[in-house]
UniProtKB/TrEMBL annotation:
Full-protein interval shown: 553 to 821 of 962
Keywords: ATP-binding, Cell membrane, Coiled coil, Kinase, Membrane, Methylation, Nucleotide-binding, Phosphoprotein, Transducer, Transferase, Transmembrane, Transmembrane helix, Two-component regulatory system
Location in or out of the cell: Cell membrane
Every Histidine kinase domain range: 41-256
GO biological process, one term: chemotaxis
Protein's recorded name: histidine kinase
Main location: membrane
GO terms under cellular component: plasma membrane
GO MF annotation, one: phosphorelay sensor kinase activity
Protein's UniProt keywords contain Cell membrane: yes
């Protein structure tokens, strides 16, 4: 995008001509476009759950309903309210991280057990998706904030599942590469078009292809992941074969420290 305008040209207070200025405003235009896209995404994401909360509460208030039906409506209200909360939390988290107001509580962490926890806590339909953890490192110690690193892998795992609508296996691998610990989250889902890859970690960016228009989201998840990984002196990248699957690679510096053992409780005599 080019902006063009004329500017008078003076020399010693005397007008000697006119300058035609060409300015490349592609960047500004893109930022504006992304901002307005965000406003429409967020208003849609806020309105949809709110509309369903309002609709179902009205039904519950105005009608004599059988207990099973009441329960069904209340469950929907609960789910939608949770969705709203997580959207607002993501938004505030990212805001806090970007402004440097987020505090990190860093300790020695065993990534292997952190990944096991993330997988075991993730609600999944085993008839649809399978998650495999491949351990290819003897040790996997890093210095990091446990909750924040859990959020990284939870976001990557939930994307892997969410963008694999016809199921498949999600493979999480961790291995050592020189001084780094490398963690890969690989899926057999929709994949990512080549031209989208460079923008994937920008906040509010969502791939707008027909294969995923129905899948909800705000484009904040990967921006949060990137902020956290960078705060841990790490890097994140994505690769994909469109239509076949994607792999997200997180690289974190390893630590030589040992994780303090939490032994079994010894009964007092
Ligand atoms: P959201 O999922 O809320 O849209 P994210 O920041 O987590 O936001 O992801 C940005 C975009 O990247 C998504 O809209 C999606 O199209 C694409 N994406 C992320 N992870 C995957 C994946 N594992 N497979 C395919 N596409 C993905």
């Amino acid at each position: 995008y080019v902006q063009m305008y004329f500017e008078p040209l003076y020399q010693k207070n005397e007008r000697i001509g006119t300058l035609l200025v060409h300015r490349d405003i592609t960047k500004e235009y893109e930022v504006d476009r992304m901002k307005s896209e965000f406003v429409s995404t967020v208003s849609h994401e806020l309105r949809t759950p709110l509309a369903s909360v309002l609709g179902f509460t009205e039904l519950l208030l105005n009608k004599e309903l059988k207990p099973e039906r009441q329960r069904k409506y209340l469950t929907t209200i609960h789910t939608e309210a949770k969705r709203l909360t997580s959207l607002i939390n993501d938004f505030l988290d990212l805001q806090r991280m970007e402004s440097g107001r987020q505090s990190y509580d860093k300790k020695t962490i065993e990534i292997g057990s952190l990944l096991e926890q993330v997988i075991s806590q993730y609600p999944m339909d085993p008839a649809m998706h399978r998650v495999v953890l491949e351990r290819a490192a003897d040790r996997s110690v890093v210095i990091g904030d446990k909750d924040k690193l859990q959020q990284v892998f939870l976001n990557l795992l939930s994307n892997a599942v969410k963008y694999s609508p016809s199921g498949g296996t999600v493979t999480i691998t961790y291995k050592e590469e020189g001084p780094d610990l490398v963690i890969e989250v690989k899926d057999e889902g929709l994949g990512i078009p080549d031209d989208a890859l460079p923008q994937l970690f920008n906040k509010f960016y969502r791939v707008d292809n027909s294969d995923r228009r129905e899948i909800g989201g705000t484009g904040l998840g990967l921006a949060i992941v990137k902020e956290i990984v960078q705060e841990h002196s790490g890097t994140i990248s994505a690769a994909s074969v469109y239509g076949k699957g994607s792999v997200f690679t997180v690289r974190l510096p390893q630590s030589d420290e040992t994780v303090p053992e939490v032994g079994p409780a010894v009964p007092n005599e």
